[in-house]
Amino acid sequence: MGNNVITWLGAIFITISVIYTGCSYFEKDADEDNTAGYVAAKAVVDFKLPARVSRYGAKPPRYNITIITASGEKITRFDLELAGDPKVKDTVTVYYDPKNPETSKVKSKL
After folding, report:
1. What range defines the domain where residue 77 resides?
2. Same domain as 28, residue 47
3. How many domains is the chain partitioned into structurally?
4. Which stretches are transmembrane (predicted)?
């Protein structure tokens, strides 16, 4: 009887793990669709914020940037994570929502 209970508990645990993994996968896909209308633009790194550490370890660096749109408009954004390790005054490519540039997520790639 002891082996039967352990077998059932193992089966329940595996089932819950598979369901959780599947939900996480589909949630990730939904997040990627939120950036479908984003456009690429050049941005200049204005300032690198001081390093942060939490009880879980070091956090990625955060930056203040100025996005330069295709029309030449400058949009300043604060406290953003960027891919890689850009230095102050570096130019990086970012992706943002042109319909709502001041509050939309900003993504960058290496």
Report:
1. 39-108
2. no
3. 2
4. 6-26
pLDDT tens digit sequence for 37-46: 889 999 999 9
Whole-angstrom distance, CA of residue 94 vs CA of residue 75: 12
Query: Tell me: the pLDDT tens digits for 51-91?
Result: 888 888 888 889 999 999 888 999 999 999 888 889 999 99
Q: How is 53-98 classified by DSSP, letter by letter?
A: EETTEEPPPEEEEEEE-TT--EEEEEEEE-SS-PPTT-EEEEEE-T
Q: Are residues 43 and 29 in the same domain?
A: no
Full-model pTM: 0.63
Closest CA to 79 of 66, 58, 65, 96: 65
What is the helix (H) or strand (E) element at residue 99, kind and residue range? none
**47 and 23: one domain?**
no
Cα–Cα distance for residue pair 96/74, rounded to 1 Å: 13
